[in-house]
Amino acid sequence: MRAGLLFILTLTALSSAAAQTSGETFKTGVTAIQVPVVVRDHDGHVVSNLGKDDFQLFDNGKRQEIASFSVETAGSQAAPDRSLPAAQAPGASAAGAGTVEIPAHFIAYFFDDVTIRDFGDLKRIRDAAAQQLGALQPGDRAAIFMSSCTVQVDFTNDRQKLQEALSRLQLRAPQLCRVSQAQTLQAELLKAVVKKMATLPARRDIILISSGFYIGHDKTTEEADLIEAAIRAKVSISAVDVGEATDYTGAGAANTMDSRPRYDNPTNPVMLVDLAHGTGGTYVTGNDFALSFRKVATPESHYLLGFVPTGKADGRFHQLKVKLENAHKLTVEARNGYYATPRSE
Hints:
Elements: H1 2-18, E1 33-40, E2 55-59, E3 62-64, E4 68-72, E5 105-111, H2 119-133, E6 140-146, E7 152-156, H3 159-166, H4 185-197, E8 203-210, H5 221-232, E9 235-241, H6 269-279, E10 283-285, H7 289-297, E11 302-307, E12 317-324, E13 331-334, E14 337-339
Helix pairs in contact: 1-4, 2-3, 2-7, 4-5, 5-6
């Protein structure tokens, strides 16, 4: 109960701030848009040796100039540790002096427990997650959050504490978190976690374990806001689909938010695809949850393309499309659009 209360307090303080995105505002009134892109070969392996000229970027069918380009690798998000004087920084300590272990990777495990409906699935999810938490590396720091807000463990390398929290994952947990009818529970909680991770001095990843969740037509900007907030905070969201294990990684996942069907169903796997592809993460599905967890355990590299929209900030959804100059049987995973909302100076 205490953990849930702390999470609710955190959410109240952070959710409004997380919905706002930072960045330079240009004359068009639209903030520069960043597009994480993952390229895979026909075997599903990540391709990381492409350059800026290999990509084409389109906004509502109109080709855009790629103003910025970078390759984000597992170590590229690390920041120097500013908690120590320069003389005590790694590599500068005197012989025999105590060493300080600086975290290299922060991983937030977000269990969407309100969507887990089967006891057999629950047990296999627990076992798969426990195996991964037991294999944490010295530089890893993990946290556990649940959409019911019944459990929250802040970032730590204490495996026993993490395993104990995981053991409390249950079916039909009492939902302590509450949001307004104009908000989606999982989206608001994820925004709070993204905000919490934004200033951490290392690589930041969220592993979302869920059957999917539904965002209605009247709340469609929530998805875009969450993706934008994660990109700005350099947080990748990978999704482990524990629902019906339908493959949403093919052509069906490339449709726009406005054109694809949105069924009024408490579970919506398409949301998981959107969040993963939109933030440079990985989407995995299948009944072998141990394999799914292994697939998202190792951070993958992705490209980050930036452009300045040439159109007006009309408040509408703009479809994004990323193509390769020479595909060679490569597939592209990227965010499928954004809302051209004016930003205040």
